[in-house]
Amino acid sequence: MDNTDAPNEPVITSYAKAPARTVTAGGVSYAYRELGPKGGIPVVFFVHLAATLDNWDPRIIDPIAKNRHVITFDQPGVGASTGRVPDNIEAMADDAYTFIKALGFDKIDVFSFSLGGMIAQDLALKHPDRVRKLVLTGTGPRGGKDIDKVVGTTYRDILRATLTRSDPKEFLFFNRNATGKPAAKAFIKRLQERTIDRDKPISTRAFQTQLKAIQAFGRSAPSDLSTLTHPTLIANGDNDRMVPSVLSEDLHRRIKGSELIIYPDSGHGGIFQHHTRFAPAVVEFLAP
C-alpha cells in the first residue's frame, strides 16, 4: 500500500477509488483509505461488527467526501490491519486513538455505526478534546437494555442467510418486507462497486471476539454520557433488531443537546435504506 500522495494528485471523491494506505503505530500496521480534499478537520469513520473497509456505503461516504477529508480504517486484527482484536470496547477506543494520533490529527469529526458507535463513545469520553462533532448511528449506550442479546440475533440471522444463500446483512440490517428486501439488495450491490484492491474479510476468531466485546459492553455499568458536550447527531431505523431503536432514544436523552433522527419502516441499516435523506442531513450536520 502506498503512503504518499503524488504531486498535484487530483482529489478523489469516490470511495470506490479511494487509495488503500497503511500507517504503523504501537506495533500495529493500520489499513485505511482516504478521500476528499485534505485540510481542515477530517471525518473518521468507525465501522460495524464484522466489517472491513469494504462495508461502507458509498452513497453516504461520497457526499461527505465532496467537501471533507474522509478516512476509513480497520481496527487491529480486522481486514488488512495487523495485530489482534481486543475483547473490550475500551481497548478498541484506545486503538482508534493510537491510529488518529499516528496520522497527526489533533481534532476529528467522528462518523460511527453500530459497534463503531460504542467505540466512538469511549473515544469521546476519554479524549473529549480530540473530537469536534459526533455522529452515532445504529448504536446504543454502555449498559443499554438488550445490547447483550446482539450475539443471539447475529448467529440466528447468519444461519438464516446461509440457508437462503444471502448476505447476513440482508437479515440483520433490513426489514424482511416489501420495502426492506429491495433496499437490502441495493445496499449489498453498492458495497461491490469497488472492484480493485479490496480488503481482506474478517476472520471468524476476530468476529467472535468483537461479539464478546459487545456483550460485555451491554452488561457493563452505564458510562456518564452527560459529560459529552460535543454536537451529536443520532440516527437509526424505527425497527432495529440488532441494537434496539429505543437505545437511540436513550442516547438522545443522555447526551444533552443531541439531535435524533428515526427513519420509518427500516431496521439497523435505516441510514443506508434512507441514504437519499440521511446523506444530506449528515453533510449539513458535519459542516465546518
Automatic annotation (TrEMBL):
GO molecular function: catalytic activity
Pfam families: Abhydrolase_1
Domain AB hydrolase-1: 43-274
Protein name (record): Pimeloyl-ACP methyl ester carboxylesterase
Matches recorded under InterPro entries: AB_hydrolase, AB_hydrolase_1, AB_hydrolase_fold
Lineage: Bacteria, Bacillati, Actinomycetota, Actinomycetes, Micrococcales
UniProt organism field: Arthrobacter bambusae
